[in-house]
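Comment thread on ticket #2218

A.B. wrote:
> Attaching the input chain for the structure job we discussed in standup.
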Amino acid sequence: MKQSGLTMSILLRLTMAGAVVGVLTFHGYGAELAGAEAAESADVYMSLSVVGGFPEAQGMNLAGQEVSRSNAHRSLGAGFKVGVFPEATSRVLGIELEYFGTTGRLSAANRNSAEGAAGLTVLNSMVNVMVRQPSGSVRPYGGVGVGYSGGILHGADFPGRSNRAFDSTSNFAYQFMGGVQWEVRGQTFLFAEYKHLMTTFHWKAVSFDYRANYVLGGVGLSF
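C.D. wrote:
> Ran it. Output below, let me know if you need it in another format.
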């Protein structure tokens, strides 16, 4: 009887030990699986920024004549980005969707001394191909992008134009950029960026090649 009780006690202890080992093994496997899934996932992020623009209106045509002088004043605006760096590219090469815009002033005078001025808002929708350093708390990056830019004249007072309200146009645009991200806490990062954008705008009695240097600063979240 004592031997039977001893045998049952040993079996019970072995069963409990096996259960503990099984739970620990399953937990370890689950942790490894979660780590593997995380390693196979992509880096996804979104960000908001304040944008400062330093534009130029090159080759401006006003009322059918080239201008003797033009001045595209500094502009201010905001931007939004969402991007992904897939595991397939080792998180080095990625795609970014971007929307940003600025508002400023434009003034000019043609050879007959006819002067004009207007508010100028430029809205840009771009798709960017990005390259970056994939790890570290400080990550430099660069890229090129293509898309569309919309130019909106408001309060326009130019010779040959009767519309002084709003007038919009759009055209193909391209840009190149470079910047750096700083991880500040968990999934939060700060970033600073420089970009140069090029497009051409045509309205009634007003046209020019738009070139702008932009400086961006903002905050983002990684997922």
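A.B. wrote:
> Thanks. Noting for the ticket: Confidence is low (pLDDT under 50) at residues 1-8, 23-27, 29-39.
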